[in-house]
Fold each of these.
Amino acid sequence: MLKQISMRIPEETYGIIEKLSKLEKTEKSAVIREALEKGLNKIKKDVAIELYRENELSISEAASLADVSVPEIMEVLMQHGIKSKMTIKDLEEGKKTAEEII
């Protein structure tokens, strides 16, 4: 279900929305929803990256916050020059847990 929100935006931003709406032959609200969704996805990733960098989140928590898989967040982190903090011990424990589950 869609919720309604009212807000004020700069005239320049409105002009961009209007132009995109005409070019895409769609409603302005659809352009705004798409922009909002893409912007929120970027913000979630940015926050996940920063919190992982500051040791506030584990790799799986960062992936969950960013709404991506662990391999995807690892790729994003590598693109930002952030190395994994996983140790051999972490990998061994993960393997042991996986073996117990199977």
Amino acid sequence: MSAVIQKTEDGKLWEFHCHGCQCNHGFDSRWTFDGNMEKPTFSPSLRHGPYWRMPPDWDYEKAKAEGRLENDPATGRLPGAISWTCHLFVKNGQIEYLPDCTHELAGKTVPMELL
């Protein structure tokens, strides 16, 4: 079995791949960790957001060609930016996405991915 989490270079954070956000998230010393590198459990839940992000189908080159890379003066965000939240538990190597996630895995449980 291989590790599904890893320490960051500075050694302050345990990282894992988030299927819902398609990026890494991490736990630091504020969470408890059971020490299991293959099927970890962290407590309590981890919440990222809300923050602003471009939707998954956003096309940078198209936006650039159309001159849409300037922040909207009214909102301070790029046109098309969406509010994004990821809220989850990691239990026994499974990522339990909570219903307040704004991605397609809200309410679902998936196995952690090997790093």
Amino acid sequence: MNRIFSLLTFISIITISNAQNLSSSPYSGFGLGEPQFDQNIVLSSMAGISSTYISEIGNEVNFSNPAANQNLNFTTFNVGFNNTFSSLKANNLSEKNSVSYISDISLGFALSEKFKFGLGFQPFSTVGYDVSRIDSLKQADDKYILNSNNFKGEGGLNSLHSFVSYTLKPNLSVGLRVNYIFGNVSKDHEINNFEYNYITNNYEKKDLVTGYETDVNIATYNFTTGITYKMKVKENHNLTLGGTFGFGFDANSDFNYLKSTYYYNSFGTKSNVDTLSFGTNKGKLSLPKNFSLGVAYGKTLKWNAAFDFKWTEGVDYTFPNEKGIFQNNYKVAVGGWIIPNINSYKSYFDKIIYRGGFYYQSGALEVNSKDISQIGLTLGIGLPIAKRGQAPSYINLGVEFGRQGTKSDNLIQEDFMKFKIGINLNDIWFRKRKFN
């Protein structure tokens, strides 16, 4: 019954999370939005050092590197939640936002001693922004023509994914991850003209609002391979090497577009709508190739420190009325974990997993000749909740402090803080119990 309940919970959470509003960042307005994949709580609490992360306790799934699951001994169910607070600053203006959402769900288990398998669901990219820009053109001594451009967007892509890993030798494993990526992105651009008399301080609408609406549906696949090699350096000390390669993909998509003019009535809804053009176009959006390399060193069940490097290929993207380039970019991260004494009988705090890390990501976006880079500091803990003698389960807590963008050159600086909480429940499936 518990196994059936876990599977039903897994499916129902996927259904609920498919309708979440996940972003409030203005930088999510480019292309298919801000990347969100590979952000489970355990890995993100260590700045995302995923290429070499192999759970020594054997109860955590690593989807980022599908090969890094050779220690998966228990059937493990994970669910995580993310609450992001952001502060946007541009010139002398500022705004605060917050969003909450389910960040990841996964189920993993050992099919045999050498074969491991996992199934998961996670946001792949997010779109959520509402930005206005006002341009003025002086017409006479006492009047200005104001041109208001309003940009809004919502939606994003989701990933339903699975992995299989195989242990070739005790210290060498390979793996494959398959992602089914699907979702919808909607973008609106409104142009509104006003005449402003700065002597009488009055605004007067001069024209109808002109609106450009774009809606795109996407469904495609992506594949990632991985490898890990772990060798013993000295007693209880190990060196781990790991890497991944993502193949990228061209996603066939249908672009629905609508151009119309209208007024907004006193209730804030559109009226007198006049459709100028509409239709559907076929198009392609590219998912970029990427690779990662990592190295880690640590003492078994005591501590581990790692370095990760990830490179992502730049790709072109085209929406109706929008065309741009994501440039080649990279991410470097250092992070790790420590357990004071996992077998402690005296102190609960000695059995807690303490995590931390730091990362820098170069800008995939270039706006006004500025790279929109990102920097962040992460912290986290894993609180054991299983009774002695049972499979180890944890409540995972994490926090991330970061910044992207800049206030110079009429851009937006975004400072954010993410609070993360998740639960890791474990049991033994597919193996006969010797004792009840």
